[in-house]
Amino acid sequence: MRRFDGKVAIITGAARGIGFSIAEAFASAGATTVIIDISEKSVQEAVRKLQSFEYKVIGFNADVTDGNRIDEIFKEITARYGHIDILINNAGITRDSLLMKMKEEDWDIVLNVNLKGTFICTQKISRILLKQKKGVIINITSIIGLMGNVGQANYAASKGGIIALTKSSAKEFGSRNIRVNAIAPGFIETEMTKVLPEEIVIKYLDAIPLKRMGRTKSISDLCLFLASEEADYITGQTIQVDGGLLM
Ligand SMILES: NC(=O)c1ccc[n+]([C@@H]2O[C@H](COP(=O)([O-])OP(=O)(O)OC[C@H]3O[C@@H](n4cnc5c(N)ncnc54)[C@H](OP(=O)(O)O)[C@@H]3O)[C@@H](O)[C@H]2O)c1
Prior knowledge:
Layout: E1 8-12, H1 17-28, E2 32-37, H2 40-51, E3 57-61, H3 67-81, E4 86-89, H4 104-132, E5 135-140, H5 144-147, H6 153-173, E6 178-185, H7 191-194, H8 198-207, H9 216-227, E7 238-241
Parallel strand pairs: 1-2, 1-4, 2-3, 4-5, 5-6, 6-7
């Protein structure tokens, strides 16, 4: 018997990076795992990769800001499996520039995907979880949402918003046995951080007490814990996984 046998876990933005690592973790722990991501081709590739290990994985392409599509997908999953146990709101983007020069469209798209996308998926799933009287939601925020960052006013605001949304939804859903927590990664090796200039990377590494970038597995391991029975009295929290960068 594996730890998540019989459970259904949905992860957004799971075709690559942190989301893919989370999908892999739940699938290898026995969960029926649902990958949602914006590009159909990347979803298919990710599903194929995980199915090659004989994991129970399916995928849907969707934009997390498209409420109707998300609703349709969640309903289809419920019809197919009878329940949904875990939602990980992971899809996120950056459009960095100094606040003085930031285009409104870059503000809007980052707030839309990161914060509104998390709100939409949370609202749509809540109808199902509230009826079930159980469920777990984990929101992937960032330490930038706690500390701010030069050139990331939009991203920081969206991630700070996710922390507040996490607390509000934990308060609203707690009495129905639904836990909502957030994970705030620091500087993790993915496509998102690959694009950073070398001098920025060196500066970060110098400031991180553990002196290295984080691995996606550190985030997925925490997701498994927060979704498990061992975490059944933890809700409304934002847990940092950042090598000690922010303390
Ligand atoms: N990497 C880090 O150091 C770090 C640190 C703190 C927090 N985080 C957070 O962790 C999460 C994952 O980051 P990552 O580094 O793994 O990013 P990533 O490698 O860029 O992966 C993000 C995935 O989300 C997808 N996506 C983008 N917009 C979407 C939308 N509207 N609807 C559905 N899917 C969408 C992307 O698809 P396309 O590529 O096709 O657009 C991509 O597959 C994000 O929320 C990020 O803010 C990351």
